[in-house]
Every structure is written in structure tokens, then in C-alpha cells.
Design brief:
With about 500 residues, the chain is an alpha/beta fold. About 30% of the residues lie in helices and about 20% in strands. It contains 14 helices and 16 strands. The strands form 4 sheets. Strands 3-2-1-4-5-6 form a 6-stranded mixed β-sheet, with helices on both faces. It has a 6-stranded mixed β-sheet with strand order 9-8-7-10-11-12, with helices on both faces. Strand 11, helix 13 and strand 12 form a beta-alpha-beta unit. The longest helix has 17 residues.
């Protein structure tokens, strides 16, 4: 088990975040630039005071994997037990060097106390440490704990609220559980609610130290986007009242994560955003130079009007993307792959135009469509598959779990496939031989990397009267079970 956990780290299984190149940066990983927030448990569960040097050594080694500088990675460091102490802020220029951060860690961990209050730790991360984040880079919060949040004193409602606020700000939460206690069922459930799929367990600091040299791979693993010269990426974002005000903030936070993971620039990736309810609202086109930077796009998302509408007309949003974004006037560039990402929580209105009359025009322009359904997605899964095809539909049970899809969606955005299939066309009428067929089209676009063609058959046949086995896409990203967890009330995956 120990070997497997270390191997997972080496392979970079943890979710990816943005890697912004820094030309000629000395020390650490020069290809990774982010705002890195450490929240470190210093309770007596570390066992003995003599283990403090090991804790310090591992944390310092962790920091040394990144290039800390004014223009590179910024680090904020906090320790907690009953209360949380923030030792520096992200925007404090006194800690824009690796040596300064290492000295800070060495001087602040000197005494172990109790009990463990995860609620207080995340409160300080939310209210203090995340102040000073930069719009131009991604933010990662790394919680290192034994997981034993004191059940009598911990305010789990407050804990839940701070997790929500951190995610709404576009920060990724990664949890590292240290020691056997963190792996007990009751503590695993709490840590899972904080980090989702980004929770990783180690038997102790010794084991964490063995894998920490790969922390760059853990937080900033090589992305499939690195082979891309850039893309034209359209975001179609549902803002209907069924989402709700609280969930809409989580949706915006997820957009911030995705935008932060792309290299946006004049000669790199361009983004266009459409918000929609009854009518689409075009926020910007690919050609608008005011949005040719990560900072500008993330600032725009932060400033979206939070007014929600009704009903849902997904068809109109797709038509708007076809007419206003994927055109020469909209800034669609020859030689740059086209990607459209649809984020929605419900089915389109019954008065909508058939998708079969809309999607072919986008496919003809080489647009790769990715559909994300949140909530009761099974009620509108057929629509999502008609829009994007079964292999490019992804689901989350609720908006809290939307961030768990970050890794797989980013990989799909930056896929190295040169061709992909459209959705299956309807089955043909029965032939005289009692057989019917259906087809799909292989769509070719500029390959991002080495590129491969379409994989799989272009035509299927079956005897009349036999039901089709419907492909459900990447079902492993759906959450099985019906029992409720302790706070957000969604199915447990444990």
C-alpha cells in the first residue's frame, strides 16, 4: 500500500493546476508559477517534539521544488492546532525568495499543541491567506493534517462555508493526510469533503519525504496543453435560477480554475464567454484584445453579474457561439483548434430549436464540444450526448464536486487527438433485410500535439427490434451510492 501511494505521487496523479512558463528562472521548477498556500497541522498527534525537525525538513523540501520569486511562485505559510497562525501573506515582498520562506518555516514550528481545529485553519486560509492572490496565476491551497478534527469543538457549518468560499475564489484544495488516524473512516469523510478527489494519504512525514521531490509533478504535472500553440476556446455558461446563488459562485470558481490553467495571450489561447438563460449574453469575442491575458479573463469572470434568469435555452447559446465566436469576425483563427465547453444544470426548454439543426454547423468548423452536466444530469443526459457525443460528456452530482472534474476536462480541452467523432445520427429505418444503421462523422481539426485520427467505427448496424446499448461517456467520474455524507449531502465514493 505504501509503495502504491508513493508511486501515485511519482506519476503525478494529483489534479493539475496552471503552469505558466518563466523564461530563465533559476532554482525550483521554472515552469510552474502560482500562489501557493500552505496550512500545516502542528498538533501533538505528530507524536513527539523530536519529530519537529523532520516536519521542518519535509516542508522546506516541498518549497524548494518551486521557483519562489517576485515574478514566480508566491508562498503563504500558516500553522494550526486549536487556533491558526498565519506567518506571512502571499503579497509580502519580504518572502519573495526561497531563502526567506525556508527561514520562516524553520523559525515557526517549535512547539506542538492540541486539539486539531480544521475549521479555524480553513477560516484563516479563506479570510487571510488568500488575500493578495494574483489574477494572472492559479492558486493552490495545500492542507497537511493528521485529519483528527476535534468533533466536540469543531464548527462543521463554518468549515463547510470556508471550503465553499475557497472554491468560489477559484482556488484548488489539496489535502495531504499524515499518519494512520487520517485514514480512519470518520476522518476520511471530513477530509474528502474538503479536498474531494484531491486527498492523499501517507503513513508519516518520512513517507511524504520520500515522494516530495515529485511535488512539482503533484501540483503542476506536465499538461497536454504544453504541446498546443494555442486554441480558440468558447465557454457557454448556464446562469438560470435553478442553479441558485450559492452554486453560481462555485460555477464561477470552476471557470476561474479552467481559465487559469490555459496560457492565454495574443499569440496563444483566446477565450470567448457566453452566459445564457432565456437569451444568450456574449461577454467577449476571441478577437477582443482586452481579454488576451489570464489576468483580464479571470478579472472578467470575477465581475460577472450574479443575476440569474429563466428558462434555459441552450440552443440559443450554441447558435450565438456559431454566429459570433466561431467566425472570422469573432476572431476564429485559422490553424488554431476550436473548443466549446458547455456548463449547465438542466435540460433546454421544450421550445428550443433541435440540436440536430445546430450542431452540424459547429462540427463543420472543426469545433470540439465538451458538455458538463451538474445535478440531476440523468434527466438531460440525452441532450448533452446529442450536443457533444457520449465520449465528451462529463457529470458532477453537485456544484461542490464540479472541481473534481478539473483534471479530466482540461485534458479533454487539450487533447492530442487530431480528429474526433460527432454524436451518432438517428437510426435509419429498417431495411428489407431487417437491419438498421446509424453513422457518425469524423471531424478533423488542427492537431494540438502529435495527433491521432478518429478511433472506433463510423457506422453501427443492428437487427430491427433490438434496443441500442447507449454509451454513457466517462462514467467513472460519476459518483455511485446513495448514502449521504456528513455535510454537503451527496453520495459517498468511499
Amino acid at each position: 500500500m505504501t509503495t502504491l501511494r508513493i508511486l501515485a505521487c511519482v506519476l503525478g496523479i494529483l489534479s493539475i493546476t496552471a503552469a505558466v512558463p518563466i523564461s530563465g528562472a533559476p532554482g525550483g521548477n521554472s515552469s510552474c508559477k502560482l500562489d501557493l498556500v500552505f496550512v500545516v497541522d502542528v498538533t501533538e498527534s505528530i507524536r513527539e517534539e523530536k519529530n519537529i525537525p523532520k516536519v521542518i525538513e519535509v516542508l522546506q523540501l516541498f518549497v524548494q521544488q518551486f521557483h519562489v520569486s517576485a515574478d514566480g511562485t508566491h508562498v503563504s505559510f500558516a500553522t494550526f492546532a486549536d487556533e491558526s497562525t498565519v506567518h506571512n501573506s502571499l503579497n509580502d515582498p519580504n518572502y519573495y525568495t526561497e531563502d526567506a520562506v525556508l527561514a520562516l518555516i524553520n523559525s515557526t514550528i517549535n512547539k506542538l499543541t492540541r486539539p486539531t481545529r480544521l475549521d479555524n485553519a480553513l477560516k484563516k486560509a479563506d479570510e487571510v491567506q488568500l488575500n493578495g492572490v494574483r489574477k494572472s496565476v492559479s492558486t493552490v491551497v495545500v492542507l497537511i493534517t493528521d485529519g483528527r478534527s476535534h468533533p466536540r469543538d469543531t464548527n462543521f457549518d463554518a468549515l463547510r462555508d470556508h471550503v465553499y468560499r475557497i472554491k468560489s475564489r477559484g482556488a484548488r484544495l489539496i489535502v495531504i493526510g499524515i499518519g494512520p488516524a487520517a485514514q480512519r473512516e470518520r476522518y476520511r469523510r471530513v477530509l474528502k469533503e474538503i479536498g474531494g478527489k484531491d486527498v492523499y494519504y501517507f503513513d508519516g512525514y518520512d513517507e511524504l519525504g520520500l515522494g516530495i521531490s515529485n511535488s512539482t509533478e503533484i501540483i503542476c504535472p506536465p499538461s497536454t496543453c504544453k504541446d498546443s500553440p494555442g486554441m480558440d476556446v468558447a465557454f457557454l455558461v448556464d446562469r438560470t435560477k435553478s442553479i441558485g446563488d450559492v452554486n453560481y459562485q462555485l460555477l464561477k470558481g470552476f471557470l476561474l480554475q479552467l481559465a487559469g490553467a490555459l496560457t492565454i495571450g495574443h499569440n496563444a489561447t483566446h477565450t470567448g464567454i457566453i452566459l445564457f438563460a432565456k437569451y444568450p449574453s456574449l461577454k467577449n469575442t476571441f478577437s477582443d484584445p482586452n481579454f488576451h491575458s489570464n489576468a483580464a479573463v479571470r478579472h472578467q469572470i470575477d465581475g460577472f453579474d450574479d443575476t440569474l434568469g429563466r428558462p434555459t435555452f441552450t440552443d440559443r447559446a450554441l447558435i450565438e457561439a456559431n454566429l459570433s465566436l466561431f467566425t472570422e469576425e469573432g476572431g476564429d483563427r485559422t490553424g488554431f483548434p476550436n473548443v466549446l465547453i458547455l456548463l449547465t444544470d438542466g435540460q433546454t426548454n421544450t421550445a428550443s430549436k433541435p440540436f440536430s439543426e445546430i450542431i452540424p454547423s459547429l462540427e463543420a468548423k472543426g469545433v470540439r464540444i465538451i458538455a458538463v452536466g451538474v445535478g440531476d444530469y440523468e434527466k438531460f443526459q440525452d441532450q448533452l450526448e446529442e450536443i457533444a457525443g457520449p465520449d465528451r460528456v462529463f457529470n458532477a452530482f453537485n456544484f461542490q464536486e464540479l472541481s473534481d472534474l478539473f483534471h479530466v476536462i482540461l485534458n479533454e480541452i487539450c487533447s492530442t487527438k487530431a480528429g474526433w467523432y460527432s454524436a451518432w445520427r438517428p437510426w435509419s429505418p429498417c431495411s428489407d433485410a431487417g437491419i438498421k444503421t446509424r453513422t457518425r462523422t469524423c471531424i478533423y481539426s488542427t492537431p494540438h500535439g502529435k495527433g491521432i485520427g478518429c478511433v472506433g467505427p463510423r457506422m453501427e448496424t443492428k437487427p430491427c427490434g433490438v434496443g441500442a446499448k447507449r454509451a454513457r461517456g466517462l462514467s467513472e467520474f460519476r459518483l455511485p451510492g446513495k448514502e449521504k455524507d456528513w455535510n454537503f449531502g451527496h453520495p459517498s465514493t468511499d
